[in-house]
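Next comes the chain:
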Amino acid sequence: MNGILDFLQKGGVMMYPLIISSVLMIALILERFITLRKEAPDAENAFEDIRENYQPGGDTAKAIELVSKQGIPGRVFARGLLNSKRDADSIEMAMELEATGETPSLEANLAIIKTIVNIAPLLGLLGTIAGMISSFRAASQVGLSNPTQILGGISEALISTATGIGLAVVGFIFHNYFSNRVRRTVEDIEYFGAELVNYISGRVD
């Protein structure tokens, strides 16, 4: 623990915003994992549950109750089932309206993670500049006869830079992972939503 505190102290003043950014990013990553696990299950499973519990022209109550609990894909498909007595275009429009209201929540907080990814190296760079200024100031005051102060400033610069880049790399990896998962979820909703419209309306056997 003391080693960690010593490391942070040697990183200079810019370590404080980097630490805050790190804590915020960890919290957002955990929140995204929990939310996407709950709200973005496999859309194919929801579609198969509908096929098993609903026949075109029959009662939709059981299927709606079942899929409504299956996150955003289930709620989108449930909206389609609620309009099952209408024509195919109306069913499709109802599902599109539901998806329009639901899917933005899948991307919530991704913009903040991306912002942290962008600013973390800049904060590290500011730390680098501050450390180099300290090094040059020490060199101008004591010359090269006392390299300890000079090396201390360089160490401060390297620590903040490494921390900023490391934070950006981690954030970049998770941002891409969540973005790809959101994209796949939206694509699955669109694909299996079209399959559901076809199944309800009988356009395709």
